[in-house]
């Protein structure tokens, strides 16, 4: 579930998608499932340009291509014009805490400005009608509705993990030198190429002026011998710069295009050691799961789901002293 502005997402989406796919591969998820990644957006992420990128319509060769599901923005008018009889299918959306909700829906297609045709699933509930957009034409409508209707619960879970369990906290940073230093562009070669570019730019300007002057003087009927004598300095400069460029080319060929990072920067590249955070996160996740199980047990004696978390918190955190009398 991603909730951010469309402008921010356009900048962040390549990193988000690539990191998500890499993480999935690292934990052993097969390639087919990795490529079936589904990104769910809030209304603030609604953007034709963003959806084109995710659908592989922007010439990125499918690098960031993913299935996406989003609430349809600016869809209030046309969804209200749909005839009631078209909502002939229903799905029951189940939640973690609140009661299951029966939702009617109508699966159709819309033309989105600057994107093209897109699948639209219009749902009707007690709160009214709204549209869901997705680029996946194969996935069942019931699954799409379940995923996006439960997204608020997932977002609230992330907020709880961050605020209550500090899941985003890192207990300090410990670095380790990389055993194999990555190859980077040779700074000496870069410097020589920059010098060559400057010489070529200066040579181009001299040649341009020299050619312009020669054409003008030839148009006046002057002989080439006289023109050449007049521009001996410019000709000498052209030959001198050409020699310098040739020497630079020879010098560039002596150096490798890439060298190791530590050779280029004078220090080794390091990476963060996340072992401490992994250990601490395991404890936090275990604590969360333990609280969840405790809530299930407490439901046997206090069956109000929406109050179960604060009730457990009061029991656990408001301890006191017990005094045995009559002994």
Explain how this protein is built.
The chain has helices at 6-26, 31-34, 48-54, 76-80, 141-149, 151-163, 187-219, 224-230, 232-254, 261-265, 275-298, 308-317, and strands at 38-41, 67-71, 89-93, 101-112, 116-125, 128-134, 174-177, 183-185, 258-260, 270-273. It folds into 3 domains: 6-163, no CATH class; 187-255; 274-317, no CATH class. It is elongated and about 120 Å long. A hairpin with a 2-residue loop joins strand 5 (116-125) and strand 6 (128-134). It is α+β, with helices and mostly antiparallel strands. The chain has 12 helices and 10 strands.
Q: Helicity, in percent?
A: 40-55%
Biggest sheet strand order reads 1-2-6-5-4-3
Unreliable parts: none
Q: Count of helical segments?
A: 12
The proportion of residues in beta strands is: 15-25%
Pairing-aware structural class of the strands and helices? alpha+beta
Distance between the termini: 59 Å
Our Rg estimate from Cα atoms comes to: 33 Å
List the helices and strands and how they pair.
Elements: H1 6-26, H2 31-34, E1 38-41, H3 48-54, E2 67-71, H4 76-80, E3 89-93, E4 101-112, E5 116-125, E6 128-134, H5 141-149, H6 151-163, E7 174-177, E8 183-185, H7 187-219, H8 224-230, H9 232-254, E9 258-260, H10 261-265, E10 270-273, H11 275-298, H12 308-317
Parallel strand pairs: 1-2
Antiparallel strand pairs: 2-6, 3-4, 4-5, 5-6, 7-10, 8-9
Can I get a quick summary?
By secondary structure, the chain is of the alpha+beta class. The chain has helices spanning 6-26, 31-34, 48-54, 76-80, 141-149, 151-163, 187-219, 224-230, 232-254, 261-265, 275-298, 308-317, and strands spanning 38-41, 67-71, 89-93, 101-112, 116-125, 128-134, 174-177, 183-185, 258-260, 270-273. It has a six-stranded mixed sheet with strand order 1-2-6-5-4-3.
